[in-house]
Write a structure and sequence with these properties.
Distance between the termini: 42 Å
CATH class of the largest domain: Mainly Beta
Largest sheet: 6 strands, antiparallel
CATH topology of the largest domain: Tumour Suppressor Smad4
Number of domains: 2
C-alpha cells in the first residue's frame, strides 16, 4: 500500500559539514514533488521542536543519536522516520547519504517496510506522587551515579515482585533497540530489535552474581534510590537527564506507541551487526 505523503519533516544534525548540502538536496527534491517541507536544524543539545500536525514522514539526518531524538519527538504521532546516516553506519541508521533518494522512492511506492521498535515510558515518583515525566526513550533508561565510577544503592522490583538490591554504578532498563548501545557495553545480551522484551542490567555491580535479566515487555520495572551520599541521576538515551533523591522511584514500562523506522532494502540489522562487530573475521576481528 502506497503511503500518502503531503508534508515531510527534516530533522538535521548540522555538526557535520556535508549535512547542509544534503538538507538542500532533500528539500529541493521533495518540493519538486509538491511535498511541503518543515525543517528543524540543530548543532548542540536540541530543544523539542514544534511539529506541524500534518507531517506524514520525517527524515533524520545524522547518526543514531539523531534517530533517538527523532523517535522521542515523533513516536506518539506515529510518523515514520527515514534515518539517513552521515558518517559510519550506526545500528539504527541503515540508509547511507547516497541512498536516500532510492530509499524514499521505494518507500513512497509501498515497497519498503516499517520496523516497529518498542519504546519506554518513564516516570519518577517522590513521596508517592509523580515528580517527573512521562519521559520517552528508544534505547534505555539509566539510573546511575552522577559521577562515574561511583557505587550507588538501588532496589529493583519487577511488577511489584522484588528482584534484588544492587550495589553498582547503576541499573539500566533497555529495549531491544538499545541492546546494542549502553546495555551491550555493560555486558548485556543483543536482542533482535523488534522483539517484545526488556533488559534489566546492573552497571559494574559490586557482586558478581548480579547478572542481566531479560523479561517480557508487559512487565513494569520500578527502581528505588536508597539512602546514600552520592548524587544519582536518571538519563534517557544518554540525552535527557533528571536528578534523583533518596527514596525516589523510577517506574519504567513499555510505551503505548512504537518508533516507526523505515527499513533499508540494502542491508538489515544482522548485516549491520556483523559489520560493526567484525563477526566476518579478519585481522581486526
Amino acid at each position: 500500500m502506497r503511503p500518502s505523503i503531503n508534508k515531510a519533516l527534516i530533522i538535521a544534525n548540522m555538526q557535520k559539514a556535508e549535512t547542509s548540502e544534503l538538507v538542500d538536496s532533500i528539500r529541493a527534491y521533495l518540493e519538486s514533488k509538491r511535498i511541503k517541507v518543515q525543517l528543524f536544524k540543530f548543532k548542540d543539545e536540541p530543544a523539542i521542536p514544534a511539529i506541524d500536525p500534518d507531517v506524514d514522514l520525517a527524515f533524520s539526518l545524522g547518526g543514531d543519536g539523531t534517530v533517538l531524538f527523532s523517535a522521542r519527538v515523533l513516536a506518539a504521532r506515529r510518523v515514520p522516520i527515514l534515518a539517513v546516516n552521515i558518517g559510519d553506519f550506526g545500528f539504527i541508521t541503515e540508509v547511507s547519504k547516497h541512498e536516500w533518494i532510492a530509499a524514499y522512492e521505494r518507500y513512497s511506492e509501498g515497497a519498503m517496510e516499517l520496523s516497529r521498535r518498542l519504546m519506554l515510558e518513564v516516570v519518577t515518583l517522590r513521596d508517592g506522587r509523580r515528580s517527573g515525566g512521562p519521559y520517552w526513550a528508544l534505547n534505555e533508561a539509566a539510573i546511575r551515579a552522577h559521577h562515574l565510577p561511583k557505587v550507588v544503592r538501588l532496589s529493583v522490583k519487577i511488577s511489584a515482585t522484588e528482584l534484588g538490591r544492587y550495589r553498582a554504578d547503576g541499573v539500566l532498563v533497555a529495549t531491544p533497540t538499545g541492546s546494542t548501545a549502553y546495555s551491550m557495553a555493560a555486558g548485556g545480551p543483543i536482542l533482535e530489535p523488534e522483539m517484545e522484551a526488556l533488559i534489566v542490567i546492573p552497571i559494574s555491580p559490586f557482586t558478581l552474581s548480579n547478572r542481566p535479566i531479560v523479561v517480557s515487555s508487559h512487565e513494569e520495572i520500578a527502581v528505588e534510590v536508597e539512602e546514600q551520599k552520592g548524587d544519582v541521576i536518571l538519563t534517557l538515551d544518554g540525552q535527557t537527564v533528571a536528578p534523583l533523591q533518596p527514596r525516589d522511584i523510577v517506574e519504567v514500562r513499555r510505551a503505548e506507541h512504537k518508533a516507526l523506522i523505515i527499513r533499508s532494502d540494502k542491508r538489515n540489522f544482522f548485516d549491520v551487526l556483523r559489520g560493526k562487530l567484525k563477526w566476518a573475521g579478519g585481522p581486526d576481528a
